[in-house]
Structure formats: structure tokens, C-alpha cells
Predict the structure.
Amino acid sequence: MTTLTKILVTLTILMAMAVTLSSTPTHENPFDIDDDDKDDIIVSDSSSARVGRFLAQQPMGLMKCNKNPRLCRAKGSPGPDCCNKKCVDVTTDKQNCGLCGRKCRHMEICCKGWCVNPMVNKRHCGGCNYVCERGDSCVHGMCNYA
């Protein structure tokens, strides 16, 4: 019985340490913008904007580009365009391809602002800008397959 008690106490201490360490922030808030340093704005994606994954923690709010459009042109931004309060690149974003709100279909990708199917498109075979040679066809994302 004493061995079981020791194991339970050890597990409880380890769990408490894990919760404490995971809830301690490891970096400063990247969204604190001083009026003096507007040229050095750094934007991080939503996956690194959260400190931990426990329900008790509140996620840090992301800055919205609709109030500050320059945010999208900052270093580290996902893209230079503001669509639905998010910074995106309309030349490559499947949800905003070419224009805000223009979604590509399931098998399509966004290449230079156009929705294309890389499995059959000769000019984007297998990915953006992979052009098949003259006379070749694009099948299953490969030029001159079979």
C-alpha cells in the first residue's frame, strides 16, 4: 500500500510541474506595438500566438488588418492583402484566390490568382508553374504519364 501511495504522490507532483511549465509564457507578446518602432512590426501566425493549450488560459488576441492595413505588409506577415480581417496572399491562398472571398474547389490550388487543377492543367502540372513540354499532357499531376 505504501508503494502505491508513493507512486500516486510522484505522479501528482509531475502533473503539477507539467501544468506549471506549460502555462508559463516563454516569449514576449509580439503584438505590443510602440509608436516609436512602427517600422519593426513583426507578425506571427496563430499557432505561435497561443501560449498553452489549457482551457484556463486566454489566447492572446490577434491584431486585425481592417483597422491597420499596414500590418499585412509587415515582416513575417502571411501576405500583403487584407481579406476578412486576416492578412493573406491572394496569389496563392485557396480561400481568397485572386480576390477576397473567391474560393477554389476541392482539387484546385491557387496559382497567380487563378484556381487551377494541378492534376490535369498543362501549365500547372503537379503544382504552380510546372509547365509540360509541347505535345505532352498532364495526367495525375505528371507530364506525359504512362
User: Anything to note?
Assistant: DSSP finds two helices and six strands in the chain. The beta strands are 81-83, 86-88, 109-111, 114-116, 138-139, 142-143. Residues 28-50 have pLDDT under 50 and may be disordered. The CA atoms of residues 74 and 96 lie 20 Å apart.
